[in-house]
Amino acid sequence: MLDSNSQPLFEKSWDIVIIGGGNAGLCAAITAAERGCSVLVIETAPREFRGGNTRHTRNLRSVHDEPTDVMTDRYTFEEYWDDLMRVTKGVTNEPLAKLTLESSQALMEWLIERGVRFQKALSGTLNLNHTNAFFLGGGRAMLNSLCRFAESVGVNFVYEAEVTDILLENGFCESVDVTWEGQSYRVRCKQLITASGGFEADLDWLAEGWGDAAKNFLVRGTPYNKGKVLRVLLDRGAQPVGSLDQCHAVAIDARAPKYDGGIASRVDGVPFGVVLNKSAKRFYDEGEDFWPKRYAIWGRLVASQPDQIAYAIVDSEGVERFMPSVFAPIADDTIEGLASKLSIDPVAAKNTVDAFNAACPDGPIDQMSLDGKATKGLTPEKSNWSAPISKPPFFGYPLRPGITFTYMGVAVNDRAQVLMKDGKPAANLFAAGEIMAGNVLGQGYLGGIGMTIGGVFGRIAGAEAARVLNR
Amino acid sequence: MSLTDNIEADGFDLKSFLDPEAAGEVIRVMQICNACRYCEGFCAVFPAMTRRRQFDEGDVGYLANLCHNCGACYHACQYAPPHEFGVNVPQALAAARNDSYAAYAWPAPLAGLFRRNGLFVTLGVSAGLALTVGLMLAMIAPQLFWGVHLGEGAFYRIMPHTMMAAVPLAISAFVVVSFVMGWRRYWRHTGAKWSGFPDLVDAVKAAATLRHLGGDTSSGVLSGPGCPTGDDGSSNARRIYHQLTMYGFLLCFAATSVGTIYHYGFGREAPYGYFELPVVLGTVGGIILCIGTAGLFVEKRRLHPSVRHDEGLGMDYAFIVSLFFVSFTGLLLLAVRETSFMGVTLAIHLGVVYGFFLILPFSKFVHGLYRFAALIASAGEARRS
Question: Which residues in chain A have Cβ-Cβ distances shorter than 8 Å to B39?
């Protein structure tokens, strides 16, 4: 709202300052402003790139007991709970997880009332409409709606402003230090809500968990999630949650931009061919399960290969079996030729593909089911959809680990208050969104739950901060 | 669809068809969009895109004419500038659409008129006007022209009915042939398929409600968000004004048709009474056409600069303005028809109307033609898939 004229905003004393203008920050801002609080949202990105990773999201996972306009069938609390327990293997704070899931349905309604539009349920083979509601136009459209609504209830925004420090004494926060247009400001606030995301765009920090491999990671999301606020909180005595090397990473096209490639950088061809490493060897079962159930492990798999690079290879039949990718595949009429173009050893690549072809069973594959068309005699075997890569032209996609978000954050309680190392909650410091998502999602991945956690805890943080102020 | 399939005997050559730069940009952008697909709920363009893996020039012509330029996808786009992917679907499609109007126009040599259209429309209308007025003055006695004429056949004392009707008849014949040719070219170029009347019904519904300018395919007539006015708001104003324009135009067209039936069917000559059907249809149509075109003019000016295609704007304005004058002079004629200004007003109105229809195949009017064809094709694709 007030970009060019932000200086006076820094001189005011605010009821509530919110760091980060994504889903969680906006839910908190609206909730607090609706209760009469003065609210300043400090966003580090320029307006065009505002909203952190929310800009790249598409949907929200929500309980619903009967079919709605935007979700098919029903998705009960129990089912949601089972899914969460399956992916996290129990690495979760159960009361907070329960709170998240229970509040998900009300969150949907709350968002709709505030102008967020969801798209009508799609009918398709791989649709997630049973569990997730899709934003009409995706996350940026959702952000635009929420920002518009927030401005209408009096929330103030400042863009391209970076928080450099938080003055936190004995769990009490008085002010935050902000750099804006080369000047430093100390902004006073009664309550502080941190909703500033994870640290996936800070490759050095990632390297603390991943070693040098992190240098070859591509960051699918916003380049602004450098975790600076998270670092400050941890340095100032907040209790960490989640482990440093836990992240959601998938295998994406190696030609994608270093940052911000988003959804379009994905490659869905893995199950319909072979994946070779730099030495032209296969290293994992490409057909272990349906792609939507397996794509989340391939970031890690590629990350553990030499130089963090791999190559998915399909033939002219395989290439038709998955969604086109944003970068045209590298093509050649021979495997050797393709290998040369991909800069891997042509003879080794040819040997690997020939051995794979020889181990494939007869008959057509059925990509709509786990067809059991498995190879025989390979290490590793391919369990499903094994068809010879024999019909030229052949296509190759270079793959790199693409990190989407990190899990390590600050511990919170059910009022979204940040917990300090002594286990006590900070008096006026809250956290919502990716910065605390690790409380609920300790490991694994469940599509759309990040937005649910952000929205639920954003609302809680906004309401609690306002309540403390007797609003 | 191969390139050669699209080269017609009359020299209709795909290769020289759309501006390669404009078409290339659409193809580039569609390849990015097709790997994202977040926008699939907005309109028919994105579902049509997902039915393709690759895009040729025919697809560009099809998608360009399916787009209503609402801008919703631009403001929702995670890859919009300044992102390095630089995706701007509405502008890419608008540039290609503007090209396609020229490409499908018949006769082909006149196609160039699309490029400098704003000027041409004005020239065309003025020429028509001058011609009509000149003819009248030459053919009738000035005292008759400035006289007051009342009762049946009053108009025809200024200009004989045979002549008043012969000019539009000739123009109509030309316009119809030109439209048929344009439609045929569009249909062949885009590889559209006719698969039955349900498609037509669906296209009529989409056009009648302007479904795809609602910003949400699944929403009702006015429950959609409408066109974004930036990343901070949206409005249904353009949709409303467009429909006022379209229905106003159709009512005026109906007025003329009913008048023709009165004339030849019942031997009753214009002018008709204020409460007779042709006048009621024309008056209501004319008023809402005036409101619609004036509103569209304002809304065009308010289009977000990122979504606006400036090169095509002259054509838009010229069409809107000339349509406004068609309706405005018609209403004026109604107001002054019992005064001595009837003659000159009739001359101006007829001139504007003749001019408008003469350049119809080279004006923005064709957007309706190709968009309707695209809607039929899109309904067919959706049904078959």
Answer: 137-138
